[in-house]
Design a protein that fits this description.
3 helices; 66% helix; 0% strand; elongated
Length: 80
């Protein structure tokens, strides 16, 4: 899955976040419970939180996302 997302999006951080987010589900489906499942949830949370600023910065650089309170809002059409 990681490789497919990297090849399609060319974003390693996004691929890492997706792979980490799928870890708890994979652990559950493979029959892991208890401490192992909690570990998978914790690891996924850490990876997503650590990569989130990288994805945000890339979105801002490309102009695909404007942080709240920053950047310029799209111009609105004037009413006659």
């Amino acid at each position: 899955m990681w490789l497919v997302i990297v090849l399609v999006s060319r974003w390693i951080a996004l691929a890492s976040m997706c792979a980490a987010a799928s870890l708890p589900l994979a652990a559950y489906l493979l029959g892991f419970r208890g401490a192992t499942l909690l570990w998978a949830l914790g690891l996924a949370a850490v990876v997503v939180v650590r990569h989130q600023p990288n994805v945000r910065a890339k979105l801002v650089r490309r102009g695909w996302w404007h942080p709240r309170g920053g950047g310029s809002a799209p111009a609105e059409a004037e009413e006659p």
